[in-house]
Design brief:
Elements: H1 2-35, H2 40-53, H3 58-70, H4 74-86, H5 92-104, H6 108-120, H7 126-131, H8 136-139, H9 142-151
Helix pairs in contact: 1-2, 2-3, 3-4, 4-5, 5-6, 6-9
Length: 211
Amino acid sequence: MRGSRMACVLVVLAATAAAPAARAQDAVEWFQKAVYTTNPDEQVHDYQKALEVDPGYTQAQHNLASVYYRKGLFRKSIAMYETLIRGGHAYYQTFYDLACCYARVGDNEHAVKALTRSFQKGFKDRKLIDRDEDLAAVRATPDYQRLAARYLAGRAIPVEPTEPPEKPLRIAKAPKATKKAKKPRKAKPAPGGAASGPAIAPVTAGVVLKK
């Protein structure tokens, strides 16, 4: 009798130990299903299912918050990011994404606070933050200017030229001087010809010579 009771206890303990592993596997399967679909509605459904099985699945929480953002559900995205932060599962990208969500709902004050935490955790991508359309209104605030001066000093982006640079002017070279034509050589008298001497002026027709 005592042996049968011990066997029942062992079976219960084995089933209890196997239950969390089975739930974790189910959560992973829902997570992978969400990852391999491009339909945001299906992603929301699958990530929520994964979190129903395993509420502490932080990667599913991060991804669900990102899907909420892409769907324009910024308040839901904020709530999910805040849950991660309270649970101690946030890193600098979490705070940066949270800042973008706050900026999209017009809360620049909380956006700057989230950016501050992002900088404190190591975010330093000035190129990204200066071009992020979500943060356009935030960048114009004095609070952000002071924040950038503190954490992003010396990381400004070089201003890109709006027009192509002018081509340097080419100086035309002076034309080369033409070679002088060579003078024709004097023909040498043929052998046996008249001796060279002063040329005899020809007699002009119609002119009477004086005696």
